[in-house]
Amino acid sequence: MKKNTFYLIVGCIALALLAIFWYSIEVHIRFLVEVAFIVAIVIIYAIRNTVTDIIEDERTAKISEQAALRTFQVFWVVFCALSIGAVMQILYIPTFPREDMPVRPHEIAGPRIMGYFQLGLLCLMIFLYVGFRIYYARKYGEWETDEE
Amino acid sequence: MPGSTENGRPMKNKIKVFRAMNDMTQEDLAQAIGVTRQTILAIEKGKYVPSLDLAFRIARKFNVTVEDVFQYENPSLTVDID
Asked: Per-domain residue ranges for chain A?
């Protein structure tokens, strides 16, 4: 299979996934989009092996590797900082001495909100990865042009 | 910095010259050694320093040594042999 055909199929799969996503929202079946997503990824990896053109080499592997590493380095610090704060808020213990039990301060964000915030951070990680990928692709000459 | 490694050390190459001598395009060379054309272009422009494995494959494609194709120019590392 040619490289362009592969990208075309990936585009079609993405469109199908989008349609399934909205359909599953409409019929309230979460399971549908979850299964569809897994199946789509399996199909993409399967047909990727049949591509005869070279779409990945050591430079592209290095770009992915560096982007993933930097994403992880930034993400785990932010995520852990937020999680530690959330744990402290959930496990609120009055300070010593206990004679005057302090009133639990008003929560700025409850555990549920913290959970949503962590989920949001996980989603943001994708954007962080894309950003780093663009940076390293540029660094390693992805969009260089020449006279040929 | 063009023509430099990630560490800023000067690594130059003559891939373009050898390609011209062997009448090869970037696409020809890329296909012959199993990489993308963009990788050849990035190496030629000094944006990417290839691994030893890839450097050997490039050199062997031109039937020359690695040092004929790649030059590591760091004056502080030169050794005078009497």
From this structure: 1-55, 57-148
